[in-house]
Amino acid sequence: MTVPLIYEPWFKRSEYESRLSRLQAQIRDKCLDGLLAFQPETVTWLTGFFTRGYGSFQLAVIPADGSPVLICRDVEEYYLDTTCIFPDRAMWSDSDDPVTIAAEAIARVLGANAKVGIEAAAWPLSVARYEALRAALPGYGFQDESQLAATMRLIKSPAEIALQRHAAKAAEAGMQAAIDSAGVGVSEREMAAEICAKMIRAGSDLPGPGVMSSGERAFHLHGGYSDRVLERGDLVQIETTPNHRHYHARFMRPIRIAEASETDQRIVERLIAIQDAALAEVRPGVPASVPDTIYRDGILSEGLRDSYTNKTFYSVGLLLQPAGGEKLEAAPGCDWSFAEGMTFHTYVLAKGFGMSETIAITLDGYERLTTFSRQLFVT
After folding, report:
1. What is the pLDDT of residues 306-343, one digit of tens each?
2. Using an 8 Å Cβ cutoff, are 237 and 252 in contact?
3. What is the mean pLDDT of residues 36-55?
4. For the residues of 80-144, what is the DSSP string, one character each?
5. In the chain, what is the straight-line distance between the N-terminal and C-terminal CA atoms, in Å?
6. Is there a contact between 39 and 149 (Cβ–Cβ < 8 Å)?
7. Which residues pair with 264 in a beta bridge?
8. Residue 29, burial from CB neighbour count under 10 angstroms (0-12, 13-18, 19+)
């Protein structure tokens, strides 16, 4: 597969057109005149438009019929030209009121009076901007459709999963760098530098080892690297989280510095066995509660934790910071089932040891996108 450059469309035009057609069918089914897409992932997934400046005020106006219109800051025009497959646009400059420019463009596309869906949960759409937009469009009725495109994005195309496979290879390169660089007297910061360099060279569009901590902090999720120097016997919690064209894959492996006990080895072996039992049930049509329960019952019955409250699966795909995952998660009470084309990070944690994989749901089961050796590493 020839991977496109980051500043050109990441997929064939036909794929974007298919996404638009499917989304517009749902817009019409809801009797809406259009959708105002503020979530950066929706804009990029639907139109191709990508810029590192997605945090500034921008949106896509998606009519029930016809082509979308992009609204963004004028300094992003080069990236709009090179990545977006739809030409219509409205640009605002730093001396403008962006909401006024947006309201004029929306009215041009959808008319003075319309019923529209809006991604009200999108993080770039502040309460102040939402209220200003409503005031500027008095003839509009707004309906929250934050999950309309987000739900469609849960099913990945083969081309999207191919980008996640590239990210998985970068994750594996980062993990190998972690293992190779870890040792007594090495700082977490030095390890992080090696991990980031290897992931970037292997195709990751962003650095950052993800979860990385040692010593006492290894027993608490979401630690980041520091200046702490590794000591003999330390446990290092490491999760490499690269992305390729901002499509993500990630995984965890445990590392002991210089020595590991038989108890350590047994814990990791049990975690792997529990995960294998859970994943053996994963296939299209199976309720997510089935493997989720296997994870929880396995951990609790083994006495590895007193309680187990964290999610066991969460959907990953196109993610733009600050997003860390998609909305679909497996936890007690979840009521959804696996479907072909979904992709997940699935993990199990106990006593500071973490074991996880990124998987894609296939026609009759699942594929591990991350294929790194599953074991406790001792450096």
Report:
1. 999 999 999 999 999 999 999 999 999 999 999 999 99
2. yes
3. 97
4. HHHH-S---EEEE-TTS-HHHHHHHHHHHHH-SSEEEEE-TT-TTS-HHHHHHHHHH-TTEEEEE
5. 35
6. yes
7. none
8. exposed
Phi, psi of 253 (to 5 degrees): -145, 145
The whole-angstrom separation of Cα 283 and Cα 338 is 6
Beta-strand pair 69-73/89-92: parallel
For the chain, give the mean pLDDT: 97
Q: Assess contact for 9 and 48: CB atoms under 8 A.
A: yes
- Backbone phi, psi, residue 244, to 5°: -130, 120
Whose tokens are 């019409």? That residue is: 28
**What is the rounded distance in angstroms from the CA atom of residue 107 to the CA atom of residue 284?**
43
Distance CA 255, CA 236 (A): 5
The amino acid present at 302, given as its one-letter code, is: E
Alpha helices in the chain (DSSP H): 13-29, 40-47, 77-83, 98-110, 127-136, 148-152, 158-181, 188-201, 262-279, 289-301
Sheet holding 353-361, edge to edge: 329-330, 313-315, 343-350, 353-361, 366-368
Number of CB atoms found within 10 A of residue 156's CB: 22
Question: 1 by DSSP, 3-state: which?
Answer: coil
Taken in order 87, 56, 8, 343, the sign of the CA dihedral is negative
3-class state of residue 353 by DSSP: strand
